[in-house]
Amino acid sequence: FVSAEVQANDTSGKGCEDDIPFAFDITGPGTLSPSSEPSRTPSREPSSEPSSNPSRNPSREPSEKPSLEPSSKPSREPSSEPSSKPSLNPSSKPSREPSRTPSKEPSLEPSEKPSRTPSLEPSGKPSLKPSREPSGEPSRTPSGEPSLKPSSKPSREPSKQPSLQPTSEPSRSPSFQPSAEPSNLQCAIDVELNCVTNFGQVSNCSDIRPPTTPRCSLNNETMEAVSFSYQSDCSCNQSKNQQGNESECVDILPLVDSPVNIQCSDLLGNLLMVQPETVAPDGVFSVTNNGTPLPPKLNCSIISGGNVLQWNLVDVSGTVELDLKEKYGALQLEACDDLICEYEMTFTSDFINVGTDIMNITLASRELDGQLESFLEFLNRTNTLPEYQIQVDEKAFYIEGGIRFDACERSTLSYGIFGEGNPPDGGGCEDEENFTISALPQCAITTELDCTSLESGIPCDDILAPELYECDCVVPNNQQASFPTMLQFGYKPRPCPDTGDQTSVTGCTESVADLPPTASVRASLGGFVYFEGIVGPDDIILLVPPVGTPITVVFDSITFTISDVTTNALLQSFGLRTGCSSNLAESIVLKAAYGSLDFFGFQCQTGDPNFCYTEIEFVQAAINDGFTNLTIDEFSLTFNGITTDFINGTNIPLSSGESVIKQVVRPLYLCEQATYTAQGIVGANDTSELGCEDAKNLTFRIPDRPSTMPSQEPSTQPSSAPTEDCTIDINLECQGCDINSTDLPDCTGRPTMFGMLFRGGNCSENNFTQPIDRVTCTDFPLNGDVPKLGSNGTSYIVAIPGQGRWDVGEDTLFQGYVREGSVYFMYDGGNNLPADTRLMIFEPPPPPGPPPGEVPPDNTKLQSVDFHASCSQPFVLKNVFGASQLVQFQNTKQGNVSCFAATELDYNISIPISLPSGEDTIRIEFAQLITNYTNPRNIVLPIEGTLLCSESAAADADNPCNTTEIAINFEVFLNLAIPQGYSTTLFVAARTLNSNQSCLGLGTDEFFAPLNEDTTARRIRAN
Length: 1023
What we know:
With about 1000 residues, the chain is an all-beta fold. It is about 0% helix and about 40% strand.
């Protein structure tokens, strides 16, 4: 038996094969015993003993096991197990039932009719004609080639994969379900973005980081490369660096705002490598020495049109301080070796066709920091197709360079690309990619702010108002008396109350009509002293049990004495019955006035404290979260209009990652609903002068404390009809307010006194008539700024003789604290003042300030002004010398000459236009004048108890009132040096005489002074 096989392949990859067997017999005498192997083809009927030669045709019934090789013709019925290989030719008719297990390989040619159940794998070629009825289930894998004609009926379920080529004719009916994927060509675009930089050791833009330090000279090592940017607007006097005399800059010609040539050499004239040699404004160039260390000093010239505009000498030896971002004339240091600020980046945008057919690119654009631009027409392609078309797996690309990024400044750069395309026969596709890089600046600082109660430690947000407003320490159902352990008062100068107005105040006497703003206050019971000290209007008086005595409470009877601070003369004294421990007496009430004291709170032996004032603590932190050391030059907290300067003229160095914490304690008023805001500010700088700052606001609210008891039961009867309004008509027609400026005379004799208005501002405010060479004004901004006009800030001012005619320890012409808007006076005991005067303004030192004849430290000096004051040179009122303005002088020849005008203001209070029914008279209970030009600004008018009535009531002889209006007048001094507006508000509270109904009145008035020829009076009147 001989078998021949042949196999082949072609470009389709499907392959083909054929084989043919050949058998022949050698006739012999027959076997005497069974052969060791069975015949290849079984006999028709199996013999009891195998024949010596097998039969030529197979038996009708197959043997139990198949032969190793298939017979030339198939058996009528299939064997239970398939043969290892299919027969060479298929049977003419399919078997009724398929074999249980399909053959490993399908027959080479399909059977004429399909089997009732499809085979698991399709035949290599489809049948010539499709079956009339489709099989119940499709084959798992479709045939390699479709049938020539479609089946009469579609299959119940579509095949999982479409055929490689469509049939020549469509099916008569569509499939029940569409195919999983469309048969048309697919569009797919892949957009890729790549960014590189050619500066230093960084090649990938994602690896750009801020320098770890700005100091190039940190290791005292010679540098091999430095880079500068050309700053076309910086002359030599704008240099900012730490090299002092080790660097030099010379301006020769004006700089140009256009490209320039850069040439650098050593001190012997040997040229160094500059790349690029030509730079535009803000452009960057590097200086190297052919791979060897740079010389100790660089001599760089800026050249335009063959002319040197500026040359610079910079020390790069590493032994002299050299910092990034320092300026050497028009050259700003951007990099040194591997410390790099300025990077130049190049972006490559790839548009790749990852679809199945040629793609038309319809959109190619990029967005750089929000600016969108198209570069479709600039795309580069790697094929020869028509414009904007690319083959499958090929790409188009776009390269954009010269994009700069400064890693030493707080900045973010974003670059995005967008691409769209479509194939010739299908829908479009799109893709995008984005790149973002951020950097912190050299100097980065943050501040944090916290606020807590100093007493309890709770956050300021949780502080509540007092629970009780009447001093009541009585414990219900307790037989033992309870007393306060602490009482809180505030000093407010005022006359004794009228007898009978306050039953709590007894025996009030006074020796002066007007008490001073600062006085000595003593509170005692016999020889036991609860408080003794000097207080001002904003100070708290805290009464506590005397130390070193068995007394542990504050008893209800207290004696107050108020004395002069200097002479110790008694100004006012009175007794106070507090009623805090008894239900029988009237108790004192929070916020009420008792003599020259206001009651602000109490603490009983049991229960919570009830104070209008408490102390809170602010904690403010400044954190250096940058990568370099810095110096804090501003560190302050502002609360309730008062600013605490934590710097106080002394800058604070702060290393990277470190923090500094400051605390301040402030009073907080709790007896009214209010919202408070505190602001913490911190500012810092480093040698680059980039600067950084941060601010934090903290807001909290003091609400009313909720009631601890429910409200009473509702009334059973409705209330009576509402009362009629009672409004007091206040006529604020000011008499004497139309003040015209007059010609202010020049000083003609040496002054014995002159007054300066501290108006604030720096030397740019100068406005004087003296020759320019006789006045010198210098600001010291590194130490701080003089308060500005209208800031209400305070400085410490010292006035001394000029021209070096004063030594420390000698008498000054003036020294002390001065608030902006106040006047201070130069005086020498009535003697003529020196011909030359020097004014020095300092940050306010802690009270009480330096001793007479001494000045604060120089590093707190804000301004120094020298001017001539003998009147031999023009010395004219309203002249401005820095932060001070001449507003008054006095000499023996002219007397007292002033910018201040004394004027008398008149206001009227009249009876209401319409009183409630049955009323014709009111009693004034309270009247207060509020202005922006008097001292003090709030004036309580002494007209309590005054009766006002209608004209008809005044004419009635039996009516106790005969007054229909009250005129108020007072004298004030107005500053005519500065044209400004003046406002007056008058508030009056009263009650009707019969029904005790409340009446209120409010009037306002404004006027402008002085009035010049081109200025008219402006007046507003409101009730």
